[in-house]
Specification:
The complex is a heterodimer of chains A (about 120) and B (about 110). Chain A is mainly beta and about 120 residues long. Chain A is about 0% helix and about 55% strand. Chain A has no helices and eleven strands. In chain A, the strands form two sheets. In chain A, strands 2, 4, 5, 6, 9, 10 and 11 form a seven-stranded mixed β-sheet that branches. In chain A, a hairpin with a 2-residue loop joins strand 7 and strand 8. Chain A starts with a strand and ends with a strand. Chain B is globular. Chain B is mostly beta strands and about 110 residues long. In chain B, strands 2, 4, 5, 9, 10 and 11 form a six-stranded mixed β-sheet that branches. A five-stranded antiparallel β-sheet of chain B has the order 1-3-8-7-6, with no helix packed on it. Classes of the chains: A mainly beta (about 120), B mainly beta (about 110). Chains A and B meet through strand 5 and strand 10 of A and strand 5 and strand 10 of B.
Chain lengths: ~120, ~110
C-alpha cells in the first residue's frame, strides 16, 4: 500500500518567494497533520485536519503560513512570503481516528531551505 | 507542554541494553513511541495507554507509569539497526491526536 506522499522532497528558494508543500494522505485516513522539525525545537505540530476540516491551527507560527485540505486525498501548506527562519523539514502525517491505538504514518518530508 | 526525554544521547556497543525515559509534567493519557533514522521519516514503534501496561516490538519494549507520569522504552541486546533518534509523543487527554506533543528525541548510536 502507498504511504503518505509528500512533494517536493527538497525545495531551495530565495527569501520572499512563495512556497507550497503538498501531501497525499493514506487512503481511508480521516486525520492529517502538518509538522515542522528543527534541531532546536524538535517536531512541532503546525495544524491538523479531521475529515478535511482544520481543527487546530494554533501551531501555525504566523499569518505567512496557511494550510488547506480541499478533499480527503490532498493537502497543501503554503508559506508566503518565505523567510530564512522557515528553513526546516516539514512532515505530513495521517491516521484513522475513531479506532484506538492508531499510529500516525509520516511522509518522507520536505526539506526546505530559504536563502 | 513538551515531554522531557532522557538521556539526550546514548552510545552503545552491539548487544548492550538501553533505557530511554519520557516524562510529562501533566497526567498522561497515552504515550506514542517513534524511531527516526537520519534523513528519513519517523516510524511508529508502539502506543501505550494509561494503566501501567507494557508492550513489545522486536526486542524493544516499553512501560507506562501513570503515577510517575512517565514512560520508559527498553532496548535489549541492541542491534546496529536500532541506531536512530527515538521520540516519545505524549497525550495528556483522550480524543484526537491533535493534542499529541513530541519530545525533542534521544539519539541512540549502536557501534559494532
Amino acid at each position: 500500500d502507498a504511504g503518505v506522499i509528500q512533494s517536493p522532497r527538497h525545495e531551495v528558494t530565495e527569501m520572499g518567494q512563495e512556497v507550497t508543500l503538498r501531501c497525499k494522505p493514506i487512503s481511508g485516513h480521516n486525520s492529517l497533520f502538518w509538522y515542522r522539525q528543527t534541531m532546536m525545537r524538535g517536531l512541532e505540530l503546525l495544524i491538523y485536519f479531521n475529515n478535511n476540516v482544520p481543527i487546530d491551527d494554533s501551531g501555525m507560527p504566523e499569518d505567512r503560513f496557511s494550510a488547506k485540505m480541499p478533499n480527503a486525498s490532498f493537502s497543501t501548506l503554503k508559506i508566503q512570503p518565505s523567510e530564512p527562519r522557515d528553513s526546516a523539514v516539514y512532515f505530513c502525517a495521517s491516521t484513522y481516528e475513531g479506532a484506538s491505538r492508531q499510529p500516525q504514518h509520516f511522509g518522507d518530508g520536505t526539506r526546505l531551505s530559504i536563502l | 507542554q513538551q515531554p522531557v526525554q532522557s538521556p539526550q544521547a546514548v552510545i552503545l556497543r552491539e548487544g548492550e541494553d538501553a533505557v530511554i525515559n519520557c516524562s510529562s509534567s501533566k497526567a498522561l493519557y497515552s504515550v506514542h513511541w517513534y524511531r527516526q533514522k537520519h534523513g528519513e521519516a519517523p516510524v511508529f514503534l508502539m502506543i501505550l495507554l494509561k494503566g501501567g501496561e507494557q508492550k513489545g516490538h522486536e526486542k524493544i519494549s516499553a512501560s507506562f507509569n501513570e503515577k510517575k507520569q512517565q514512560s520508559s522504552l527498553y532496548l535489549t541486546a541492541s542491534q546496529l539497526s536500532y541506531s536512530g533518534t527515538y521520540f516519545c509523543g505524549a497525550q495528556n487527554y483522550g480524543g484526537s491526536q491533535g493534542n499529541l506533543i513530541f519530545g525533542k528525541g534521544t539519539k541512540l548510536s549502536v557501534k559494532p
